[in-house]
Amino acid sequence: MKTRFRLNNEAVEIEAAANERLVDVLRRDFGILSVKKGCMQGLCGSCTVLLNDEPVPSCMLPLFAVEGKEIITLEALNETAEYRAIISAFEKQGIILCGFCSAGAILTAWSLIQKHRSLSEEQIRTAYMGAMCRCTDIISITAALQQVCKSRRSARREK
Predict the structure, then answer these.
(1) Helix and strand totals (H; E) in the chain
(2) In the chain, N or C: fewer CB atoms in 10 Å?
(3) Cα distance between residue 119 and residue 113, in whole Å
């Protein structure tokens, strides 16, 4: 089956079984290595992608479910100002990601800061429920994301 979607801001088309998992297609056919095969149950966050700007586990998505949709992976964000702001805030909180959890941690953070001018601890905890990370803790992630939001608000006021 031919499936068409946008991957990292480019139109793509792939011939593959409709029920094949997106994580496998991204790694094998597109060389996207930021998505990792972890639990394969949608619980760990290592295979996270943005599907129309929402973080989702790609191990739970059959290929047919992305027809006509937008998929963004960590590879597309790592040159953006938002990515640098998130990484900088993480580093200031002592968060150093191992690589296994990077997709879930960073894409979830990106999604949150795109939607909200400020973030509550509850919003962050809820968003990170599907991203298991042993590199850090939710308290440090909360402090980092609240700092990113605060910096963005300050930058807007200065303009």
Answers:
(1) 6, 5
(2) C
(3) 8
